[in-house]
């Protein structure tokens, strides 16, 4: 088996295209083999993207959601969750504070909450763009005209993860939804000129190596600009409460392979990785990742944005988070970027 791994890794090092079987071989690596995979992914990151780590400040607008996804603590069926919505003024004040701390990209994220109209988000984006930052939206599925309106307001990027490339597993995890609907949204976003962010969870019940390999191939096919890959963490108020958690090593292998097959993609070292392991984010940065997305939301709301439980840093003030993550990045011999971190593939330059 080791010779198969070595031959497949050599294929990756020669920058040959990896097929599904190749990806499955590399995903099966462990111990020393996994270390070799991470080392190569880190070298690819260094070659194509250098030492810069881009920080994206996340503002969690609302924990209301009309969807009922089996894996998410924000699901509408979770009646034990105290709900909140930030006010217009709270959002803008939070954005101003994040900009003052040096963030060049702000991410407006929330559950699919119909309380915020398309025009509300339009006005928010217009105001935040006056602060001379890039704006990423992560607000779920909408129609073409809504995405178009938000693009006209100045939105630069949109993050909408496909979660799993297995259509049957997708339908099971997201009742009433179809993977093709998700991919249609991604196609519209690409058509409108957004930088597209997608991604998947690692360790979902029913997931296989075939599924994970398909996740990577789908990300490449969609030509994403960012790929958020994090471990599945079961939430106690969901149907998957008793499911097994995704592992650090398999998630790191997925991050590494994403870097290898998509050298120019932005890859976050996710907060979920930092939640399941005290050095999870640092390990991801050493396995191909080049982005960190600290939470800059008001501290009184952070514990209520419970996609998964026990999230790290929920009691830290934004200034502390900024200082802490900067220190971790520098300790790895990396540098915090001072740019907006647009896609190196040559997208928008706003």
From TrEMBL:
Tell me one GO molecular function of this protein. Answer: 4 iron, 4 sulfur cluster binding
Boundaries of each Radical SAM core domain copy?
51-264
**Primary gene name:** hydE
- Read off the PROSITE patterns from this record: RADICAL_SAM
Give the co-factor note: Binds 1 [4Fe-4S] cluster. The cluster is coordinated with 3 cysteines and an exchangeable S-adenosyl-L-methionine.
Q: Where does (3R)-3-methyl-D-ornithine bind?
A: 138
Q: Name one GO biological process term.
A: water-soluble vitamin biosynthetic process
Q: Does the keyword Acetylation apply?
A: no
Q: Which cofactor does it need?
A: [2Fe-2S] cluster; [4Fe-4S] cluster
Quote the SUPFAM superfamilies the UniProt record gives. Answer: Radical SAM enzymes (SSF102114)
Superkingdom in the source lineage: Bacteria
Binding of [4Fe-4S] cluster, residues = 65, 69, 72
The entry's S-adenosyl-L-methionine-binding residues are 163, 174, 182
Look up and give the organism this protein is from. Thermanaerosceptrum fracticalcis
Query: CDD domains from the entry?
Result: Radical_SAM
Q: What Pfam family is a match, any one?
A: Radical_SAM
UniProt keyword terms in alphabetical order: 4Fe-4S, Iron, Iron-sulfur, Metal-binding, S-adenosyl-L-methionine
Q: What is this protein called?
A: [FeFe] hydrogenase H-cluster radical SAM maturase HydE
Concerning InterPro entries, the annotation shows: Aldolase_TIM (IPR013785), BATS_dom (IPR010722), Elp3/MiaA/NifB-like_rSAM (IPR006638), FeFe-hyd_HydE_rSAM (IPR024021), HydE/PylB-like (IPR034422), rSAM (IPR007197), rSAM_sf (IPR058240)
